[in-house]
Amino acid sequence: MTETSAATAGTSAELLLDAVSKSYGDNLAVRSISAEVPASKISVIVGPSGCGKSTLLRIISGLDNPTSGQVRFEGDPVDGVPEGLAMVFQDYSRSLYPWMRVDKNVEFPIKHLPAKERAERVRFAIEEVGLTHKEKLYPWQMSGGMQQRVAIARALASHPKLLLMDEPYASVDAQTRADLEDLLMRIQAELGITVLVVTHDIDESVYLADRIIVLSSPPSVVAEVIDVDLPRPRDHIATKTDQRFVEIRSHVTRLLRSKEPAATA
Amino acid sequence: MKLLHEPLSGRSQAVLGIVGTVGAAAVWEGVIRSGLLDVPGLPLPSGVIAGVADLVPDGTFWDQVLFTLGEWMLGLVIATVAGVLVGGLMGAFSSVFLALEWPVEAFRVLPSVAVGPILVLLIGQGMLPLSLTVALSCVWPILLNTMYGVRATDTTAVMTAKTFGNGELAVLRKVKIPSALPFAFTGVRIAASIGLLVAVSAELLIGGGNGIGGYILENSANATNLDLVYAATLVAGLLGVLVNLVMAKLDDVVFGWKKGLAQ
């Protein structure tokens, strides 16, 4: 698996958005979005609230159809939820199943596997997110940050090639958020997963991303694609005081502040 | 700080409950003994308790109690399986809902006990027609609660399952039904009490002398046995209370995770 992703990383995008539009009746939510999400990197879609970020993520995950345009995952058009995809939602308390303990929640996507492999994957995923010994708790007995770790572990257990995250840290406090951002980067580096995060937080987008896809206000188009060359591993103090970080951050802020949707399409 | 209504301790609650029950029985006893109410056949609480004491060593009576319990449980199980299955499908798929909405509304208002004699005609005497009568009255609260429970499943919970590659039927089985089960169980609790009432009523009608109802019917033919009849009725009532207690406990143990349902 790592061989193929290494081979294709340089040549083709893991995920390709080709002029994706979505309208609800007369209301155009996203207007002709084209972008490439490179394999084994972290890409972040950032945009003002209400710019259709979540709509876009639903289309990418195959939960919703675009009105026009196409999404390609590993070269194949997305029609329904593709194999090898996992999604982490903002609302961990609604996304986790309250009748299952932590280990059963993590096991949820891999019930079809033999028991031995299941147990191994669950153990590994729970260890990756630092929740060993919490397996027998119910999610609602844990803090918000811990619940989101469970949701991430559950995604990892499915061995995703593409991990989608919809405002994953918007409901946790700042300290927890910083910890979870570092957790995500560490896991991504270890496992080489392709990650696509949607956020409205500019700081977060620059801190996490290899590539930022900036959306305009609705009806949204891609305002700019920015490749972030900040060195890894990144760090909340060193990286965020880096001159490049400050420049990119200001640039993205200016893009999002400009009232008119960008003319690029 | 003192709350306006501080909850009473469990012990004072129990004491008050006992005082109320014993008090009501004592007033009733007084009313009859004083001749204030003079209707033949009215039970004296002391006589009924003596009747229960007579029933306790009576093996044939307990056989009838067991018969009623078995009949009731079989009916409740049939109703639960059918109610959860059909209610689940109706909640999950609007086509199933539209197809079954009218039949459900029509059958729901049928007095199940009146169906009993027809069932006997069709399948003969025995426990099965009684259980089916019980099931027919029990299935509705279970079906409706399951249906609304399935509909109330959180959309994020459903989307999560779909992103892990689960189709509609798998989502129903793995997410919607489990998350609807506490609702369904509330239906089962309501149905359990109804079922016991219907079980005894159906026995009076088509029991062929079986069950608590059959016992009451046979003994009420003899006016000297009235205390025994009232005692059997009282036992049926106590059975209902017991069933409710067990169900409440089961609800706590099995569906404790309800506390975690997203607000």
UniProtKB/TrEMBL annotation, chain A:
PROSITE patterns, alphabetized: ABC_TRANSPORTER_1, ABC_TRANSPORTER_2
Keywords annotated in UniProt: ATP-binding, Nucleotide-binding, Transport
Keyword Isomerase tagged: no
Coiled-coil annotated residue ranges, if any: none
GO molecular function: ATP binding; ATP hydrolysis activity
Domain ABC transporter: 15-242
Pfam families: ABC_tran (PF00005)
InterPro entries for the chain: AAA+_ATPase, ABC_transporter-like_ATP-bd, ABC_transporter-like_CS, ABC_transporter_ATP-bind, P-loop_NTPase
Protein name: NitT/TauT family transport system ATP-binding protein
Organism: Geodermatophilus sabuli
UniProtKB/TrEMBL annotation, chain B:
Main location: membrane
Membrane topology: Multi-pass membrane protein
Transmembrane feature ranges: 12-32, 72-100, 107-124, 130-150, 183-208, 228-248
Short name of any one Pfam family annotated for the protein: BPD_transp_1
Annotated localization: Cell membrane
GO terms for biological process, alphabetical: transmembrane transport
Record's GO cellular component terms: plasma membrane
Similarity section: Belongs to the binding-protein-dependent transport system permease family.
Matching PANTHER family: ABC TRANSPORTER PERMEASE PROTEIN MJ0413-RELATED (PTHR30151:SF0), ALKANE SULFONATE ABC TRANSPORTER-RELATED, MEMBRANE SUBUNIT (PTHR30151)
Stated name of the protein: NitT/TauT family transport system permease protein
Lineage: Bacteria, Bacillati, Actinomycetota, Actinomycetes, Geodermatophilales
